[in-house]
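Researcher: Quick test of sequence recovery. Tokens follow.
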């Protein structure tokens, strides 16, 4: 098994292949009539996609509610700051900017917690009896090491 470089390499939500560095990736999401965000997807930028179609790995196509920016905007300390700002914003009628907090936390974990991206594609981490400890970087790394030894 090839290990992803934590917080640098990600798995595309469309083709399931590795996005080898942030400048090859894009983040797409939708917004509803209240301008709430949902449906966050990490995908290859069209120029880096291995899919031979007009939209490449883009998940949402021709959708007027589409929002997207380069993956690198969500990486590192600046990326975490941006994601937390979204989480804290209010929009129309005082609604939260993020429609589904659990979905969004999963998105943050994929981008910000070392080893989470790869392990979350191998195991259902939400079935754990103690999610707090399961998603710690040390435990995630240990799970990957165990899988490599067994392979």
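Model:
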């Amino acid at each position: 098994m090839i290990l992803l470089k934590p917080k640098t390499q990600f798995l595309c939500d469309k083709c399931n292949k590795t996005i080898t560095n942030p400048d090859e990736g894009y983040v797409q999401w939708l917004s509803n009539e209240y301008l709430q965000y949902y449906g966050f997807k990490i995908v290859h930028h069209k120029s880096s996609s291995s899919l031979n179609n007009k939209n490449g790995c883009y998940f949402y196509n021709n959708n007027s509610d589409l929002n997207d920016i380069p993956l690198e905007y969500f990486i590192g300390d600046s990326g975490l700051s941006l994601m937390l700002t979204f989480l804290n914003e209010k929009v129309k009628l005082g609604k939260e900017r993020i429609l589904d907090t659990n979905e969004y936390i999963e998105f943050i974990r994929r981008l910000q917690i070392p080893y989470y991206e790869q392990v979350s594609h191998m195991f259902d981490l939400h079935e754990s009896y103690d999610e707090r400890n399961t998603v710690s970087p040390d435990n995630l790394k240990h799970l990957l090491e165990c899988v490599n030894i067994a392979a």
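The chain is about 35% helix and 15% strand.
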